[in-house]
């Protein structure tokens, strides 16, 4: 059984300086990002 990206619910966690590009790619490729957690 394959998992489709539409079936995923992603909570993304990362430090902004390093995580922005990864998050951008997820959003641009229409992954279901339901939450984002960062620290300052």
From TrEMBL:
InterPro entries: Formyl_transf_N_sf (IPR036477). GO terms for molecular function: transferase activity. Keywords: Transferase. This is Methionyl-tRNA formyltransferase. It comes from Saccharicrinis fermentans DSM 9555 = JCM 21142. The lineage of its organism: Bacteria, Pseudomonadati, Bacteroidota, Bacteroidia, Marinilabiliales.
